[in-house]
Amino acid sequence: MTNPKGSFIWYELMTSDPDGAARFYGAVVGWTIAAHSDPAASGVDYRMIGRSDGGNAGGVLALNADMLAGGARPAWMGYLYTPDVDATIAAIEADGGAVHMPATDLPVGRIAMLSDPQGAVFYVMNPIPPAGMEDRDSDVFSVTEAQHVRWNELMTSDPDAAIAFYRKHFGWGQEGAFDMSDMGAYRFLQLGEVGIGAVMGLMPGVPAAMWSYYIGVDDIDRAAAAITANGGTITNEPMEIPGGEFAMNGVDPQGAAFGLVGPRR
Questions:
Q1: Which of 52, 85, 125, 189 is 20 to 30 A distant from 4 in Cα terms?
Q2: Are residues 76 and 26 part of one domain?
Q3: Domain of life of the organism in this record (predicted)?
């Protein structure tokens, strides 16, 4: 693959009900989530998320009883690319980050689950591309396209420290900000020339640092109606964002929080 280090190369929904998640996100986003586990999933129930264009949007991990007993809960997770998982782990630990799942080899690559010093959790991964696709980029993230994740948002107790951390370990830049008055600055993040997301302080009622992922939809009002019609909850109604599109937040029927972004038709 040719994605630069620090790219979001995969997104994963951890859920207690993959069939229910398939119905929900099919209606809201237009995805098709496989009805059965991927054969390469090493004994866990792991299903691919398909886009209408034939590409993959990420994966779905079914939380089994042991995972739930160990504290796992429905959530969306992002994977950051690094060519050396072990060196990245060592550097992040030395900077005050934590390891939640040690480096693990899977048929699709080497992964680990980490958190930054403020506690926001993410995966790192060095993937093994399928044979014949060694130069193919991951396209699960797109700035503009529906059915891709379009924005990555970090809420954290220390935005300055978080920006320094991700700049050091993943090469991100930070230029530009939006003034949110009493809530402080909404500071934009870049990887090279691409705007990948933003960092902000913790919102009222958010107890700990966390990543939120905004999925592109074709029509924000259609998607909002589908959330409530299919058992989800809207936590922030659609609001206009710079550029004229709209963003919103919700929780799926199993309890995983997500964001949506798209036009108003």
A1: 52
A2: yes
A3: Bacteria
Task: Please give the pLDDT value at position 44.
Answer: 87
The strand pairing partners of 246, in sequence order, are 240, 262
Q: What's the chain look like in SS3?
A: CCCCCCCEEEEEEEECCHHHHHHHHHHHCCCEECCCCCCCCCCCCEEEEECCCCCEEEEEEECCHHHHHCCCCCEEEEEEECCCHHHHHHHHHHCCCEEEEEEEEECCEEEEEEECCCCCEEEEEEECCCCCCCCCCCCCECCCCCCCEEEEEEEECCHHHHHHHHHHHHCCEEEEEEECHHHCEEEEEEECCEEEEEEEECCCCCCCCEEEEEEECCCHHHHHHHHHHCCCEEEEEEEECCCCCEEEEEECCCCCEEEEEECCC
pTM metric for this prediction: 0.95
Give the structural domain span for 205: 149-262
> What is the mean pLDDT of the segment spanning 74-101?
98
